[in-house]
Amino acid sequence: MTAYANKPKRFLERLYFKDGGNPVAGICCAGFEMNAWRCVPFAEHLIEWLPEYALPEDELAVNHGNMYVKLKQAAIRVYTSEKYKKRGEAGEIALHAICRDYFGTLPISNRVFYKSASNDVVKAFDMVHARFPNNGGVELWLGESKLYMDTKEAIAEALKSVSEHLEQGFLKEQKLILGPQIPKTTPRYDELIQLFEPQTSLDKFVSSGVFVIGILSTSAACAAATQVTTGYKAALDKEFSEITKRLNKSGLTKNIRVVLVYIPLADKDGFVTAFDSKLKGLQ
User: Fold this and answer.
1) Cβ distance 13 to 225 under 8 Å?
2) How many CA atoms lie within 13 A of 276 on its CB side?
3) Regarding predicted confidence, which is higher, 162 or 176?
4) pLDDT for 212-252, tens place per residue?
5) For the whole prediction, is pTM greater than 0.90?
6) Rounded CA gap, 213 and 25, in Å?
């Protein structure tokens, strides 16, 4: 999968990370510039990831002759709706970028590519990646992103979505849909595709899964800050501890492996508007 060897340069700074245990947890922030949260630069960074998020690997052969066409194709596949304020694709792309950049995952199913119309709402995992640990085996990274004004509402909806996705009927359906989409050029393809075979137990599918929850929401700490300081990090840790408590209370970590990522926003609506402006500029 040579197209995925090149990635945009890192933008989001990881301010906190707890590896080992369950959940693996982290906070990633867009940072500040001239005493203001980097809203527009964050939106622009998501556009850098747009082709990889929206196009399958065999369409990522980009050169100066087709660069604009590829960007336009990717932008249209995300959405064209004027009712953008309730759409969550910006959060999905951010989660995609974090998993690719910090965890070394590979996309195996480009969700938006399989929509029948640009503005369709797809009832599936927000992200389907794979990861290949050095000690062998394959991991199926299944993401759920929530982009909300209110953090409590975001984590509540995320936990609800993950719980619904763990239902037997949904998982069986996803196995049948996702399996044929996995490129045969994927590393350890035979080992990975076995997870999607009808004969393979759902228990093996789930045990190979890493369920990634991305929470993007308006943060009081981020809105009040002008730069990354010790005090800012401490305020974010306090917000994040509340999110983690809700996850632990849900009981999900007793049954599945979870990666929990918090991306604080100084202004959710301003961020979504900035992303929409950049996206529509390519359509």
Assistant:
1) no
2) 16
3) 162
4) 999 999 999 999 999 999 999 999 999 999 999 999 999 99
5) yes
6) 10
